Amino acid sequence: MYRGGGLLESLHGSVPEWLLLAAALVTRFGDVWVLLSITIAASWLLTWRGNDGGSGHRTSTAGREHAAVSDATPGLTPRVPAVWLVGVVVGGLAAMTALKYLFVLPRPELVAATPAALPAALEPTYISTVTLGGYGFPSGHALGATVAYGLLALTVRTGTRRVRFAAAGVFILAISLSRVVLAVHYPGDIVAGIVLGVVYLAAVLWLLERSPFDRTTTAFALALGLALLAMVASGSAGRSVTYAALAAGALAAWSIARPQLRSSSPPSSTTASRSRSTPQPAYHTESATVALALLAGITALEGSVEAVVPAAALGVLVVVPAVAVARRPS
Predict the structure, then answer these.
(1) Cα 328 to Cα 257: distance, rounded to the nearest angstrom
(2) Which domain holds residue 94?
(3) Bias regions of kind Low complexity — which residues (predicted)?
């Protein structure tokens, strides 16, 4: 498979030091924990603002979510947690891990020069950035940035749609090009990462709008499935266990907390009659049971609580604050 090795070699050695320094900084915005942190913060903010992150035209799934919450708080504007955004991003990162171990294509053997202007205190960080191990195809930074920043451009209601997509495009392109400048990816890796990120995002959004389940359950269940696939493909390497535990923890927490949104305030007589005619979704109990069982299975398989519990706790932490905010009508 041609991945642009000739182009990378022609660029290597001719990159100015200032560009290497800039690339080392920009590339951090595509790191896994940066993408997750930004998405988690955005999901909480959207929940607080009463925006669940859905598209402007509501389909049946989104409408059912709003109806369920408004039943509990008649006459008030409902807040529906937007934590499903985190599930979409975790699923994208898990899919990327699985693809890397399916293609098993190496990274470039070239190593970017260390800029003389780089402070000594930052040298270890820079060296670790340009001497990565693992597989190179597709680019995880390109795929992850496309999913995370593309998703935020679609869901955050700040500025015009054109401005949001332009800003997301700049971030995605800058992060992707930084990987080539630092010689940790071939040009073909980042092109594949962007394309696969767009395809994944489009497919997941299509699924979320048509799923018979609520978006958060669907997003984290999909993320958990992709993470388990990544565990199989990688032999539980490459953060696949982290993604699986995070998704399972979030799915369990959401499945347990979700019914509470309907009972967060005393119902009126009208609400009571509607609740009797519209039973609680039974799948939340089953999804919580399955998620907890899988979490226990992952822990047993890994043989180390330390490898699973922190990620599962993060998954719970993602959901709980958003649910707490959602129970306070706007």
Answers:
(1) 14
(2) 5-326
(3) 262-279
CB neighbours of 102 closer than 8 A, spacing ≥ 6?
233
User: Is residue 274 helix, strand or coil?
Assistant: helix
Backbone φ and ψ of 321, nearest 5° = -60, -40
* Rg (alpha carbons) of the chain, rounded to whole number: 21
Backbone angles phi, psi at 135, to 5 degrees: -95, 160
Number of domains in the chain: 1
Global pTM? 0.84
Average pLDDT for 159-173? 94
Here the tokens at position 149 are: 């920043």
Distance of CA 134 to the CA centre of its chain: 21
CA distances from 253 to 64, 228, 316 (A): 20, 19, 5
- pLDDT, tens digit (0-9, with 9 covering 90-100), for 68-127: 444 333 333 456 788 999 999 999 999 999 999 999 999 998 888 888 888 888 888 888
